Fold this sequence. Notes:
With 289 residues, the chain is an alpha/beta fold.
Amino acid sequence: MIPELSKSSVFMRDPGRVEQMLASMRNAGSSTLQVISDFDMTLTRFAYNGKRCPTCHNILDNSELISEDCKAKLQDLLDTYYPIEIDSTRSVEEKLPLMVEWWTKAHELLVQQKIRKDNLAPAVRESEAMLREGYQQFFDNLHQMCVPLLIFSAGIGDVLEEVIRQAGVFHPNVKVFSNYMDFDESGVLQAFKGQLIHIYNKREGALLNTEHFHELRSRSNVLLLGDSLGDLHMADGVTDMQNILKIGYLNDKVEERKPSYLNAYDIVLEKDETMDVPNGILLYITGQK
Ligand code: C5P
Ligand code: MG
């Protein structure tokens, strides 16, 4: 059906169910489809040539906009909290307050750096952020087929938008829910806007945006892409859901986390730096193949 599903990076708990869901989504057609995707380490690469690629936060952490002293503090936070984020022996309940602590401390440090809005684009341009191989086809195809794409990220909205703008794929069918920066009248970062989105409150984030999901209520088939178990809640605001096909990128601590990913996601992509599988699936569902 979909040749990409035979790649060696693809794992499925129940291939028969995936096949059924794909057939049902294809039957319903592209006018009933919406795509909801995480950003960092889902649409962007986890690694390139053996080196880790940056998240939205890391783009700033590593940039010239941050003092050496602050860089060291942000690195300490990353070294402390990232291992907790990916620790499969700790429960979500245990991790949640620690994740809030990480985001809050990092945002406080960023605000202290008096970052200027007009310096974000150069910081992104000079960064090593990379969208996954095949991203152009992914974004362009959804645009051509008039399928809405919601990017739901616990990263930084202003940075994320700049990444997709510079890549030439910030099409009108793309909408972003994320943490946005609040700049003062002279264009200096003074705070972050609205309620914080971290990896474990995407459900609350989704439920705050009922209007968006109401507008898309006729699109009852969802393709969800994520890399964290928290991403599974990105579609919690969708009304009248028929099918939800969940694709999970398993990038790090692969062996330890594989059982929980196989259990939670319909398709698990192990150390796969491409958009091949989502692209193959989209061609199939939208009847182009
Ligand atoms: O777009 P997404 O929801 O994946 O963004 C969240 C990611 O940002 C997390 O997986 C986390 O590792 C990363 N992060 C970071 N620095 C912070 C906070 C989060 O790199 N200060
Ligand atoms: Mg992510």
